[in-house]
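Please, structure for the following, as tokens.
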Amino acid sequence: MSEGTVVAGGERPSVRLERHLPDPPPVVWRALTEPEQLRSWFPCGVVVDGGRWVVGVKISFPFPSEVIDMTLTGEVLVVDEPRVLAFSWGDDVLRFELSPVDGGTTLVLYDELPRAWAARNAAGWDDCLDRLRGVTPGPDAWKAHFDVYSAAFEPDLGPQEGPPPEVMKP
């Protein structure tokens, strides 16, 4: 777990998570932008119209039907290869910042989101970023992370929502 934090100050809060990755920024950039690499760690499919990450391009995010019957849409907002990638993801804005450090990369993810989703999304991104690092989260990792984040975030952000009921289907 990366001990995500909440960044306030804007119209909506952002959850901030950080990971040190052993690969340099150009390699990590490919993990953020190439479909076959995204499949290994991102929580859903990523379909970029025209296949190129260009500001203004539309994106769709189909979730696996066994998880939830939902497809989010978004738009590419910032492309500064290999330093910053930002895009809308449904109601959220995701921003990935890459900095070279010690031959590897510090990746910082900001998820600008509704207040009540902070703990839920921080827990989910913890699992995703662990997979990006090559670490497989345990079967109950999300729930443990959610409980920690809920306790940490509720005093400032109010009650935290868990996953949509459809995700909890048997």
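The chain has a mean pLDDT of 92. Residues 141-157 form the longest helix (17 residues).
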